[in-house]
Amino acid sequence: MIPNSLRLFAVTVTVVFSGGVFAGEADYKAQVKSTMLLQTDTTAAGQPIRYLPTDKPEVTVRIVEIPPGGETGWHTHPVPGYG
Predict the structure, then answer these.
(1) pLDDT at 42 over 90
(2) Domains of the chain: which residue ranges?
(3) Is the pLDDT of residue 16 over 50?
(4) What global pTM score does this model have?
(5) How many Å apart are CA 52 and CA 62, to the nearest integer?
(6) 20 neighbors 29 (Cβ within 8 angstroms)
(7) Separation of alpha carbons 26 and 54, rounded Å
(8) d(Cα 52, Cα 49) in Å, to the nearest integer?
(9) Better-scored residue on pLDDT, 29 or 70
(10) Within a 10 A sphere around the Cβ of 17, how many other Cβ atoms?
């Protein structure tokens, strides 16, 4: 069984590295498919997420499908990256 802290870490990493993918979504929406899996402001234990000095931290998990030859375009991630 995977510890809850490891799950939260995996979700956080996914969010941090996928956040910028959707910044210009309108420009390439026809090529990239995005499916929301989870959007929450609490941990698996029901505790509020604490992330840097943020008023309302939130975790969003998505599956992003980029077809062969597709691209996300140039983008940046406005949050610190963790790995």
Answers:
(1) yes
(2) 4-65
(3) yes
(4) 0.49
(5) 22
(6) no
(7) 27
(8) 10
(9) 70
(10) 14
Q: Find residue 35's DSSP bridge partners.
A: 63
Residue in the structure block whose two tokens are 């929450």: 40
List the Cα angle 75/80/83 in 5-degree steps.
100
Q: In whole angstroms, what separates CA 21 from the centre of its chain?
A: 9
| 20 against 7, higher pLDDT | 7
Predicted confidence band at 56 (pLDDT cuts at 50, 70, 90)? Answer: confident
Burial class (CB in 10 A: 0-12, 13-18, 19+), 63: exposed
In whole angstroms, how far apart are CA 4 and each of 17, 41, 45, 50, 52? 20, 15, 8, 15, 20
